[in-house]
DNA sequence: ACCCCACCTGAATCTGATA
DNA sequence: TTATCAGATTCAGGTGGGG
């Protein structure tokens, strides 16, 4: 199955090598690892300081390792480490690289140019992202992982059934909903400050390793940091090779790994992903055309009415607001459930908006069932 | 506001030009459009035909326009049309490009190389994606849109409040959950077969246009296809320029546009950003007598207070300054929004100055309406 | 033990008009 | 071009103290 381990060369297994990533990879034999997980610098290019609306300062990434003079230098760096990673990878191996819009397009383009074969782009949707404090863009609520085989004809590993099981017995999709690394999981120094600015959550690596490797596979992480990859590899009984430049991180990561207990033989697919509540923003009913812009809504006794705007707000005279806010305002109530307060006309009778909400959920459910049936054949 | 339309050149507005996209863009003047939405060919590398588990054939993308001999050719094509798009775009304009992992990394990298400034990458999560029939990858359940300004210093449009309203009054995130284009919305030929393999849903364009353009803005779609962009532009009272190579699509799109009814003046209005509201100098509230000289203001928790001067400054002890300056000074904050910081007493409760600002705007609006009625009567 | 609330934090390319 | 200043802007979740 996994070819790399059959080579049985003298690999520095279950170690974190201190050193530059390209140089250190050069010391590893070709075709010797089954999987690479890489979390390279993102080249964020942050400029001034950023403050929250309450004037508190955002603790941004200002480390030297994320500073590049320009795109060309970042591309050279990227091409260099991806070239080595490809050499070290077994012919049937796969690579994962995570990034944001700052760097992921560079990475993806270079991966393709080097002959990697992209299998999926995976979206890590953050359940608790940092908001956009200035209101100038959409909340940057996700990061992207690229999953690629070493080449077009690699016979790569994908544990389809394990992923399906992990996802309530429907195919695992390319969008993953996972929280950030916070709380106890986040490594901290003696002052309680985060040890590393970009520590990844264990749930992410758990899914990555479970999807694309098997027991005893060798996983290489060229940017190990605080060692999430080694820790999850040990827990899931994979072998790891870490590479990390900073001695403090090497030490922190190794003691973290030492605290991990490998799972027993029979323990495998256990973790469940956090299910999302099927929230329906009122605006989406408008976008979907279930409720045309300009529709006039009224309360049950038709004492007040309001018109639907393109952005999902309601307008009544000079007043504008969400279905809840405007309902409260027009009735002088402290609060109001707009879903039950506002009614629309259908076949001569007035129905609450809640009917439409339910219908939109049913639509989604039917579509999902159809897709599943098609998949089942 | 939107710079492009003020140029009033002879643009082929509200038309779909039949022709090759680069050539046709060359006929348009520089800086003449406010927004570009592009759904270019995806360079799908489907090797041979794809069959479902029941051996039925998947009607994939295999039209002539999607055949590119290799990555280099696709890059050349991409660079060519993006270069023209950038020339045609107003300096403060933005571009949207949608793609999948097959092409989006080429597009993103070239966008950056041409000097576009990426604002967000947006994930369109499909509520009803096609399942992965072979079980060899994750279900490809999303597509990616890149939203970018023409350059780093573009003062681009983002209708923050409208997006927030559309999402139940929390910031719109970078992941959008929308269904595929199916059912009645999908254009079909006389045999009931879909007219175009990749028709985009109207809900997607509704959100795109509502986020990044305003009424009468000019939107260019260089790969118009069945005309979802023109149709939504017409509905939302934006102007459009379409470009499409295939005469059948041009015809289908134009008759589709003709079936759209533009929203009425008052129906197309969305929640306004405060930045766009008319500016009210604090001093004018004093002049208008809405806030008498000598009134004592305090912060919400009544920890500091200050007195209103005739010139619209506040005085607190020996300190004097604008509502913003003094608020910042008294709280040792780098900045302060005096409108929300300072409160005045009315009927026993403390209200922020912002209430008075709104009231002065309402007064002005009422006065204008009265004047208009008098003139008409 | 439990609830409530105040406070803290996260890979962030985070203002714009006017003088 | 640069300096100045008005004023717009946050969500989910964890932690910890007090009642």
From TrEMBL, chains A, B:
PROSITE patterns noted in UniProt: N6_MTASE
Matching Gene3D superfamilies: Vaccinia Virus protein VP39 (3.40.50.150)
Catalytic activity: a 2'-deoxyadenosine in DNA + S-adenosyl-L-methionine = an N(6)-methyl-2'-deoxyadenosine in DNA + S-adenosyl-L-homocysteine + H(+)
Keyword Methyltransferase: yes
GO molecular-function term, one example from the UniProt record: site-specific DNA-methyltransferase (adenine-specific) activity
UniProt key word 4Fe-4S: no
Protein keywords: DNA replication, DNA-binding, Methyltransferase, S-adenosyl-L-methionine, Transferase
Enzyme class: transferase
DNA methylase N-4/N-6 domain span: 33-254
RAMA domain ranges (all copies): 270-361
EC number: 2.1.1.-
GO BP, one annotated term: methylation
Family of the protein in this entry: Belongs to the N(4)/N(6)-methyltransferase family.
The protein's name: Methyltransferase
Record lineage: Bacteria, Pseudomonadati, Pseudomonadota, Alphaproteobacteria, Acetobacterales
């Amino acid at each position: 199955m996994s070819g790399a381990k059959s080579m049985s060369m003298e690999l520095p297994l279950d170690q974190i090598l201190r050193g530059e990533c390209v140089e250190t990879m050069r010391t590893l034999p070709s075709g010797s690892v089954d999987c690479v997980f890489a979390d390279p610098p993102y080249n964020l290019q942050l400029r001034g300081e950023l403050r929250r609306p309450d004037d508190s300062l955002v603790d941004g990434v200002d480390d030297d390792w994320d500073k590049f003079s320009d795109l060309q230098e970042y591309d050279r760096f990227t091409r260099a480490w991806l070239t080595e990673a490809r050499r070290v990878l077994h012919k049937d191996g796969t690579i994962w690289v995570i990034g944001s819009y700052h760097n992921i397009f560079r990475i993806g383009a270079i991966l393709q140019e080097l002959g990697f074969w992209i299998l999926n782009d995976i979206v890590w949707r953050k359940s608790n992202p940092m908001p956009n404090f200035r209101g100038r863009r959409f909340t940057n609520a996700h990061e992207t992982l690229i999953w690629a085989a070493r080449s077009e004809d690699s016979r790569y590993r994908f544990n389809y059934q394990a992923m399906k099981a992990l996802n309530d017995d429907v195919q695992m999709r390319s969008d993953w909903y996972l929280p950030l690394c916070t709380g106890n999981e986040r490594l901290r120094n003696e002052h309680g400050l985060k040890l590393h600015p970009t520590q990844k959550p264990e749930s992410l690596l758990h899914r990555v390793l479970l999807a694309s490797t098997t027991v005893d596979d060798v996983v290489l992480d060229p940017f190990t940091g605080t060692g999430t990859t080694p820790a999850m590899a040990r827990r899931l009984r994979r072998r790891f090779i870490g590479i990390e430049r900073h001695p403090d991180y090497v030490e922190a990561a190794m003691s973290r790994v030492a605290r991990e207990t490998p799972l027993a033989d029979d323990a495998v697919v256990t973790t469940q992903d956090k299910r999302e509540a099927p929230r329906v923003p009122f605006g989406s009913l408008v976008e979907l055309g279930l409720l045309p812009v300009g529709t006039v809504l009224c309360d049950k006794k038709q004492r007040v009415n309001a018109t639907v705007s393109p952005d999902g707000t309601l307008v009544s005279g000079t007043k504008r607001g969400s279905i809840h806010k405007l309902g409260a305002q027009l009735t002088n109530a402290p609060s109001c459930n707009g879903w039950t307060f506002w009614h629309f006309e259908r076949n001569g009778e007035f129905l609450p908006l809640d009917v439409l909400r339910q219908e939109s959920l049913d639509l989604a459910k039917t579509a999902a069932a159809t897709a599943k049936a098609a998949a089942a054949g």
